[in-house]
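explain this:
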Amino acid sequence: MAPWVLLSLYGVSFAATFASALLFKQRYPSNEPFVLELPPEDILPFLRVQHRFSRANLPVPRVLAARTDPGFVLLEDLGKTDLKAVLDAGGDADRWMQRAMALILRLQRAGQGRVALPPLPSFSTARMTDESTLFTDWYLGRHLGMVLDQSQTDFLQALFAVLRESAAAQPQVWVHRDFHARNLMVREDTGLLAMIDFQDAVRGPWTYDLASLLWDRYWDWGRARRDAWSLDFLAAMCRHGAALPPPADFLLSVRRMALQRNLKILGIFCRLAYRDGKSGYLDFLPRFWTYVMDALDADPQLRSYQEIFAPWQPPSPVR
């Protein structure tokens, strides 16, 4: 059956796009299915992760039907309200952050001891090395037009090595990898959070999803509030019996994980702008630059890098 015939049978109409996927939302009331269209090379990773998460009783949309060629998935509709919309409407940020952090812990615990499931890909040091080139190639090279000299290259490689070592030393758990407010749906039937856009999930550092949540593109919560939430997360892990580092060491590992991710994001947003024509992503650069400089300032070992990074501040967007 042709895909558009399949869609018409379910009364589906085009609604919106995000990342590499196309969403087709129902014309009918909530709790009806909707169709997710993915490129053929992405459909199997999505289905595999959904299967793992669903079997682990994690809150993800149910797959009602799927075709790998072309890549269409008929999914349970989780409604229209994401966590960003709730917070924009004045929702209690602390209460919702506690709920989101509880979901991260639930995800991490779900991946423990599931040896029968095919393992998720590893967030390896090789992958982190590849991600570091996004910052140098797309942010420094394409956006700022810089050609690094050998001294600058050596300084950056030393920084990236510190960040890789910090991530590799952490317990490795299930990681959503894009755990932020737009990818957390608030279910209309229960008010509980559910995860979407999880196809890039990996087995990686236990601070990664926390860093994704707290260093957000939409709100700068400030260092003090992020630190307080990070310590709340640590306390929650302690209640579940995990062997934990001292609070100061945990804060350092969270900040370094966020620094690695935010340097990557600067590069990704520039790539989206220049390669894919999505210039609106440049508007987010100042916020992530602020995150980078704050992380360097908060880290005694890395504080000297502030002087190196200072001339690389993003110019104000021109419209």
Observations:
- Confidence is low (pLDDT under 50) at residues 1-30.
